[in-house]
Design brief:
This protein is of the alpha+beta class. It folds into two domains: 108 residues, no CATH class; 37 residues, no CATH class. 42% of the residues lie in helices and 12% in strands. The chain has six helices and four strands, in the order E-E-H-H-E-E-H-H-H-H. It has a two-stranded antiparallel sheet with strand order 1-2. A two-stranded antiparallel ribbon has the order 3-4. Strand 1 and strand 2 form a beta hairpin. This is DUF4219 domain-containing protein. It comes from Sistotremastrum niveocremeum HHB9708.
Length: 148
Amino acid sequence: MSTDTEEKTSRSTGSKVPNLIRAKGHEPSNFHTWKIQLQAVFMEQELWDVVYGKEKANIPTLVKTKIIKADVDGVVRDVKQIGNEAEYEQALLDNAGWIKKDRKAWRILTECLDADSITLVEHSATTAEHVAMFVYSFMAKGLKPCRY
């Protein structure tokens, strides 16, 4: 694993993005300074409110319309269960600005993580959840909480 401490220029922002450097045993060697530097990048790019979770989208979980078997007056029949596809698509349109910011923040975050670190955040839905999960994983290793 590389211990190169140089920052690299982000393809998505042109800003210097700090690399998280992990020492032996998966203990972060520059975690505390890394999170402060990364916060500065997010603030410079006007993404901090999305990353911090202050700015949120209102997008419902997609429920697709489907045919189900249901008991109708004692007879099992095919019944159409109406989903929320139209509401979901409208929410995506209404929240397009937030989605763009979240994707940009996610890209910045992943550019400064190694492969092992990315696996800590791959199953979260938003960048705010990614950052919270990532910070939590380091807090579980005995580090003091940060103010994310």
